[in-house]
Write a structure and sequence with these properties.
The protein has 428 residues and is of the alpha+beta class. Among the domains are: 125 residues, Alpha-Beta Complex (Adenine-n6-DNA-methyltransferase TaqI, Chain A, domain 2); 148 residues, Adenine-n6-DNA-methyltransferase TaqI, Chain A, domain 2, CATH 3.90.220. It is 38% helix and 23% strand. The strands form nine sheets. It has a four-stranded antiparallel β-sheet with strand order 2-8-5-6. Helix 5 runs antiparallel to helix 13. The chain is elongated, with a radius of gyration of 26 Å. The two termini are 23 Å apart.
Length: 428
């Protein structure tokens, strides 16, 4: 730690309150408006040059964001006006490691608030060498960059799987293309399967005509014909504990099919076997407290390896329990149907309540969907499951990468561990 000095936050990074701007005053543009919760909107004018570091000042204290481009720091934030020659990304990671201290400096009562005058005088240790700062930020940044790359890859893979499902089972693309006179199997299947033998086999599973509104030999079936919905554990807050059983709750659902196992709660209270989930179970949010109503009815398939051998689910979540042995094979099929915008609109129509929306069980179980043959459903699963297995593998890798980053972050930022120590440990 020869190059580390005793200093204060304000001597290394000067913070300034952000700038107020109303939605009505914003004009369409590429400039991100960074609020205490992250990017909240976009504008055509920047108030600060990038790269920048932004801290949550009001509402969400302790949040930290790194902005590559020019940006507009909102009034609910503090932004680094002067880096004093330090590496901006190192400053970002410093404040990430400083998040608990920022939360402790909260001066708000009902609404959390951070005052820069309370942050600036805090005593810290700091590497005076910019080269060392850059080495630390490069190491931590490489982990975050890989996490982001995996996240984007997962978005692409999930989009591909959803596109195939919609073409086959919502828009009836292969059936319509046959009716329009297409004879090339690759064309009939929309070009998603390049293998000639496989695409010919798939083409044969689709009829070339409709009976009424459905493809010939398909049927109309409800979710309730295959599954019964069960509500999860009505838990007591006093028994929430980080060492308890992991419990999937409403906060895990992010909307649009996105889901975070990192938001599970630990629970040490009593529960019954019916409050436990197995991997492969279809679940969905039955409550929504967000303003834009993106959570209600949001589905997820419980992934093996991401939540432990035993996992609870809360009363804000429905679990779809198979009615028959053959029902489990349809979990993924109905999952994709519940992602469709048509279901989103129907879910809001069924919802009860004003401030807090609730989705009645019988309304979901009674939803009718066009259902193909078991053979076609199996063919769909064989096509998309490799994509979804890759998604799960990426999520597992991201968990390991995040744990490594979070372990190294406070040690690197305090000088307890050097970058050289890390690379030496890896090479051993």
């Amino acid at each position: 730690m020869n190059n580390w000095i005793q200093t204060t936050v304000g001597e290394q990074a000067t913070l300034q309150r952000g700038f107020d701007i109303t939605r009505a005053a914003q004009r369409p543009g590429p400039v991100p408006v960074i609020s205490s919760g992250g990017t909240s909107s976009f504008h055509d004018e920047a108030a600060a040059k990038g790269p920048g570091v932004v801290l949550g000042r009001k509402g969400v204290v302790g949040s930290v964001f790194f902005v590559e481009t020019d940006y507009w720091p909102h009034d609910t934030t503090l932004w680094v006006r002067d880096f004093h020659g330090n590496d901006p990304r190192f400053v970002y990671y410093f404040f990430r490691s400083f998040a608990s201290e920022l939360a402790r400096l909260d001066v708000g009562s009902a609404n959390p608030t951070l005052n820069r005058n309370h942050v600036h005088p805090v005593s810290i240790v700091w590497p005076s060498s910019v080269v060392e700062q850059q080495a630390i930020s490069a190491l931590l940044g490489s982990l975050d960059d890989k996490i982001e790359l995996n996240r984007r890859m997962n978005e692409t893979l999930e989009t591909m799987a959803q596109a195939i499902f919609r073409d086959w089972f919502v828009d009836f693309g292969p059936v319509r293309r046959k009716m329009e006179g297409a004879i090339d199997p690759v064309v009939i299947m929309g070009g998603v399967v390049p293998d000639p033998a496989r695409v010919a086999e798939l083409t044969g599973l689709f009829p070339g005509t409709f009976t009424g509104d459905l493809p010939d030999r398909w049927s109309s079936s409800t979710l309730g014909d295959h599954f019964r919905l069960e509500r999860g554990l009505s838990y007591k807050g006093a028994f929430l504990h980080e060492d308890g059983l992991p419990m999937i709750n409403l906060g895990c659902f992010l909307g649009g099919g996105s889901f975070s196992y990192g938001r599970m709660k630990g629970y040490k209270g009593e529960h019954k076997m019916r409050h436990l989930l197995k991997s492969g179970t279809l679940i969905l949010a039955n409550t929504d407290m967000t303003q834009n109503r993106i959570i209600l009815g949001s589905p997820h398939i419980v992934q093996e390896g991401l939540c432990g051998e035993e996992v609870l689910f809360s009363h804000h979540v429905y679990a779809a329990r198979p009615r028959f042995e053959s029902s489990s094979a349809w979990a993924r099929f109905f999952y994709f149907h519940l992602l469709q915008p048509e279901f989103r609109a129907r879910a809001e129509g069924f919802a009860t309540g004003t401030t807090v929306l609730a989705l009645p069980k019988d309304a979901v179980e009674g939803l009718e969907f066009p259902v193909p043959s078991e053979e076609l459903n199996a063919a769909f699963l064989s096509l998309v499951e490799p994509l979804l297995d890759r998604v799960t593998a990426n999520e597992l890798e991201n968990r390991t990468l995040a744990e490594t980053r979070d372990y190294l972050l406070p040690r690197l930022m305090s000088g307890e561990v050097s970058v050289r120590d890390v690379y030496s440990a890896v090479s051993e």
